[in-house]
Design brief:
Elements lengths: L4 H29 L9 H11 L6 E5 L6 E3 L4 E5 H5 L3 H18 L3 H29 L3 H38 L5 H42 L1
Parallel strand pairs: 1-3
Antiparallel strand pairs: 2-3
Helix pairs in contact: 1-7, 2-4, 4-6, 4-7, 5-6, 6-7
Protein name: Zinc metallopeptidase
Keywords: Membrane, Transmembrane, Transmembrane helix
InterPro entries: Zn_peptidase_2 (IPR007395)
Length: 229
Amino acid sequence: MFISSGYLIYLALILIIPIWAQMKVKGTYKKYSNVYNQSGMSGAQVARKILDDNGLYDVRVEEVRGVLSDHYDPRSKVVRLSSSNYHEPSAAAQAVAAHEVGHAIQDEQEYAFLKFRSSLVPAASLGSNMSIFLILGGFLFQASGLVLAGIIFMSFAVLFQFVTLPVEFDASNRAMDQLISTGIIRNDEEKQTKKVLDAAALTYVAAALVALLELLRFVLIFLNMNNDD
């Protein structure tokens, strides 16, 4: 069976991009997890200090299982840090903790992109779960209408990925500002912190790019179906 070179390039991209991003994140995180920060503060202490300095006393800091499972839960008002980041006084832990607190500050200040992303959650979730079934059904029954419906659903999931980018970049910028203004990091630690934050951002860029490539592929297939008709 003949496979075009263009399709092989496409397959290579959607496989290599996320793998490369994950390797970059894990490598950078592992490196700076073994570098102790100068403040001697654990990730939990860093998060608590920044939260308190911003008057977010009602936001809790909790430990969660897993590796790089750190996140901010806006519904429960909780910053959850993975065990190593919660307990360890590493350069990676303070960067990750400050980033998640950045989301808590966004939530408190009603950051526009964060609110927009939250509003997209139901449509994006439906798009992620339903789009591929509609598209496959359209291919199976040669029903271009089903394919189009699947593409529309998928577009919400892709939009969610792209709206996530400014949310994550802004949280990282807030993290750097807070770490510097509170004196938690010193000048020679700024570069280390930025490397951790930039590596983490790669995963979101990679996810958005792969999602866009997948959407464009189905759009082209849909257009070819209509041209054949």
